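hi! just following up on the protien thing from before. the input was this:
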Amino acid sequence: MGHRISDTSAPIQPSEEILVRSQEGGLWMTLNRPEAMNALSPRLVSGINDTLDAAEADESIKAVILTGTGKVFSAGGDLKFIQSKIGHDQKALNAYLESVRAMMCRLEKFPRPVIALVNGLAFAGGLELVLCCDLVIAARSAKLGDAHANLGLLPGGGATVRLPRKIGVTRAKYLLFTGESLPAEEFVASGLVNQVVDDDKLMDAGRSLVQKLQSKSTLALRRVKSLVDDGLQQSQEIALRMELQAGELHAHSHDMDEGLKAFSEKRSPKFKGS
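and the predicted 3d structure came back as:
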């Protein structure tokens, strides 16, 4: 059992650029650079990584929730930082982009569900953040788009890879080519967005979803997420074999034994995540 993050509504802050709080089984991360459209500065990227480290070590955390302060979820890469601090230093630019890429891969592979609450505009790297989340709830006013093409830039956080896999090649190319941003409701049918709610109901919808996960086994959640994500990279035959092998391993777990006992005894299970 790892270190437990105290359950509190007060922020736990690795830096002032990200607000973090643990509440009722969820670890809430709020990007907090509204003056910069929640752009991904090096400190913000580092803060996300530090928060994920703490959350992974705490078995009481059933889900990570990511949202933004203000009217923008995130505009992505910090272009002002790149212009003022990096300039034409290709080595420094590569290091910054690699740090962003690594953080997004970490978010994507985090061993429990990651939920995006898209409170506003999600452009470029902001969209790439959303693509790394397992579940997405968006405010009705939210818009999503790649936007790199508008400035003659290339995606550096995985949009050309993850977006076609999420919404299909033709839809992805339209967004990548045009730089256009579309209302969140237009992404429900393609599966990128699970639910669109009124703006003032977004946080409530997030809390409701976390409550649904709170009683679940963290071990089962981790293994199911891994099976889905890894299985998508394999043939169906191999993915089915992976599922069977995982089931054989899971049969020796406390949580499966506890779940079956609870069913027969007509009570709620008490999982340990092991």
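The longest helix spans residues 90-108.
The radius of gyration is 19 Å.
cheers
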